[in-house]
Amino acid sequence: MGHSVMLWSVYISPNNESLISGSYEKKARLWAWDQETPVLEIEGHEKSVLATAFDPTGKYYLTGSLDQTILQWGADSTR
Q1: Structure pTM?
Q2: DSSP for the chain?
Q3: Which of 6, 7, 9, 76 has the fewest CB atoms below 10 angstroms from its CB?
Q4: Which residues pair with 23 in a beta bridge?
Q5: Which of 56, 44, 45, 46 is nearest to 11 (CA)?
C-alpha cells in the first residue's frame, strides 16, 4: 500500500528505475517502476518527511524532515 496522507516529496533515481517518496506520516517509501507496492518503507524521523533524494550513484538515498534532521540510507535501508 502507498502513502495514506499528503506527499511532500518525490525523487526519481539516477537510473530511472525507482523513486523515493516522503510524506506527512513521518515515512519515506522506495518504489520500483514495475511494482504497485513499495519495495521498502523507511522509518526513522519524528516528524514529516519533506525532502527525498538519491546520491548520483543511486546506492544511497537521503530523507529530510521537519524534525530538523537529514538521514542517509544505504541500499540495505540502514542509516
Answers
A1: 0.83
A2: ---SS-EEEEEE-TTSSEEEEEETTSEEEEEETT-SS-SEEEE--SS-EEEEEE-TTSS-EEEEETTS-EEEE-TTS--
A3: 76
A4: 7
A5: 56
